[in-house]
Amino acid sequence: MGRRPGRSCFGYPLSIFFIVVNEFCERFSYYGMRALLILYFQRFLGWNDNLGTAIYHTFVALCYLTPILGALIADSWLGKFKTIVSLSIVYTIGQVVIAVSSINDLTDFNHDGTPDSISVHVALSMIGLVLIALGTGGIKPCVSAFGGDQFEEGQEKQRNRFFSIFYLAINAGSLLSTIITPMLRVQVCGIHSKQACYPLAFGVPAALMAVSLIVFVIGSGMYKKVQPQGNIMSKVARCIGFAIKNRIRHRSKKFPKREHWLDWASEKYDERLISQIKMVTRVMFLYIPLPMFWALFDQQGSRWTLQATTMSGKIGIIEIQPDQMQTVNAILIVIMVPIVDAVVYPLIAKCGLNFTSLKKMTVGMFLASMAFVAAAIVQVEIDKTLPVFPKGNEVQIKVLNIGDSNMTVSFPGTTETYNQMSQPKDFMTFNVDNLSINISSTGSPVTPVTHNFESGHRHTLLVWAPSNYQVVKDGLNQKPEKGRNGIRFVNAFGESFNVTMDGEVYNNVSSHDASEYLFFSSGVKSFTINSPEISQQCGKEFKTSYLGFGSAFTYVITRKSDGCPEAKAFEDISPNTVSMALQIPQYFLLTCGEVVFSVTGLEFSYSQAPSNMKSVLQAGWLLTVAVGNIIVLIVAGAGQFSEQWAEYVLFAALLLVVCVIFAIMARFYTYINPAEVEAQFDKDDKEDYLEKSNPYAKLDSVSQTQM
């Protein structure tokens, strides 16, 4: 079915505007749902971190493996248009199912605020995720290829620009949704009990998916729809299989060599199919090194976010959380795509340089490699500020004197005097095997500390009299996660009390003992102390100093002379000092790399594919992303690096090596125009047909020339 003439706008077919809007809505829907998943698994379904993360990564990998299925359906059976419509319906159903699975009141029959049958919610959410993976993966290779189909011969420049706009739509959708859906989640809703509003947060992406489908169907009359050409993949597989078998059969010297190994299939398969397969295999061969780029690119969400948790989020007057740094990539994409397209490429062309697609991709890989070098430099800066924790057979000890008189404590090789409530020195490190500690005070006997110290941990020794002490295992042997701040309380009162801080409760902190650490985000927090020992006249409300990122404090609660409580803070782990703004250069380099690598890759995959295998090559391109994710899991699992910067340098070096290999492979690649090759075959077929239908025409022309 052709397109009605005259339906164009700014030299672009009008139909692509529907395709771009459709892609924007679909990506908003996908990333909005994905932004909630981990929290939904943990807080609603009650899964632990490991299970949640495993299911999440399995889902993401599935989303990049199903494109093969979508491509097969589109290129060999339904065609791209019908595939997109039918799989979008599956996708929308999946989004609705996951939204329904998050409705607390679905199984909360006794209205106590927790679902009575969590397995129903788990089953529904898994069904929803499988349908979504099938839908999003299935339509992925088809939408970009379908957009490319809308352009005529000679519109290469517009088609290249379309792939840039298309990529822009993907990132604009993901940027908006990652900002908006978490805002919806924190709303409170529910029929019988009020809860975090997952149904609304999942419902909005579901609604957008429905909008995406409707927009796409509205444009139906304007699309240029390429008909599918039978089960192309099985033909390709059979042809390759036959060529290999035939080559093995004729391996002796007496058979003349053929130009290409696929030419061995010419006895059984026509030349057109063989030449189309040659086009695809040449591009697929080039794809082999590409997953390494994605292996680095996909660490923004994992390793780089973890790096941000060891940094300070205060940039000028604004304050950002570690997981918000990922939006820098999407913001930069939205800025960089138009700049690169409208300014950088034309400038390079003006300088007379032939900046081909493969050269762009090589530059993209180099930039990503440099981004990881930048990340390693930042990591070295961070490492200088990190506290030293005990390793192997070591223990670390800090003394807090919470009594009324001065105490002398002797350790192997050193003796220290601690005044009442004085700020102690940093943690001291000792070997657990020859550790002897004695406490003494003027005019009283020496008391040895008998405690089974656990190696590899920090301990606090609380002393309040020569013969009275308590050893507390800190439980913190790394910086607090996610850039939060650990706070614990030490009770120097005669009996236990409760502390409430920012909605968290420290229950029954017993006398002359320490609570566990609880964790809080940055800012000033207020806390209340509740104890029958405290008279009504006393103030029970206190405020912390400003909490930065990644610190830990011990608040000692003592009694003043008037009997009222007093809080004194002691720093256990200093807050992060390296600013998150230092991550901007590595995000900038990686984003520039992505713009020249990813946008170009989409366009290159389309332009070099024969007409009946456009979706298959797009799916091959997406498969490199899936393999890249798997590489991260393998490298991170296999090489446990003691230093994080070393891992970044390893990844940078690997990509640099791959980049050189790719540049050499690209050097030997010859660009083709599949449409021209196919047109030549059409012309030859037509001549053959005419010859067969009228054999005398040729004889006639031959005799004329002879005469």
From TrEMBL:
InterPro entries: MFS_trans_sf (IPR036259), Oligopep_transport (IPR004768), POT_fam (IPR000109), PTR2_symporter_CS (IPR018456). One of its GO terms (molecular function) is oligopeptide transmembrane transporter activity. It catalyses: L-alanyl-L-prolylglycine(out) + H(+)(out) = L-alanyl-L-prolylglycine(in) + H(+)(in); L-alanyl-L-aspartate(out) + 2 H(+)(out) = L-alanyl-L-aspartate(in) + 2 H(+)(in); N-acetyl-D-muramoyl-L-alanyl-D-isoglutamine(out) + 2 H(+)(out) = N-acetyl-D-muramoyl-L-alanyl-D-isoglutamine(in) + 2 H(+)(in); L-aspartyl-glycine(out) + 2 H(+)(out) = L-aspartyl-glycine(in) + 2 H(+)(in). One of its GO terms (biological process) is protein transport. Keywords: Cell membrane, Glycoprotein, Membrane, Peptide transport, Protein transport, Symport, Transmembrane, Transmembrane helix, Transport. GO terms for cellular component: apical plasma membrane. The chain crosses the membrane at residues 12-33, 53-72, 84-103, 118-139, 160-180, 200-223, 279-297, 330-349, 361-380, 587-607, 619-639, 645-666. It is found in: Apical cell membrane; Membrane. Its main location: membrane. Gene3D superfamilies: MFS general substrate transporter like domains (1.20.1250.20). It comes from the Eukaryota. It is a multi-pass membrane protein. Electrogenic proton-coupled amino-acid transporter that transports oligopeptides of 2 to 4 amino acids with a preference for dipeptides. Transports neutral and monovalently charged peptides with a proton to peptide stoichiometry of 1:1 or 2:1. Primarily responsible for the absorption of dietary di- and tripeptides from the small intestinal lumen. Mediates transepithelial transport of muramyl and N-formylated bacterial dipeptides contributing to recognition of pathogenic bacteria by the mucosal immune system. Belongs to the major facilitator superfamily. Proton-dependent oligopeptide transporter (POT/PTR) (TC 2.A.17) family. Interacts (via extracellular domain region) with trypsin. This is Solute carrier family 15 member 1. The gene is SLC15A1.
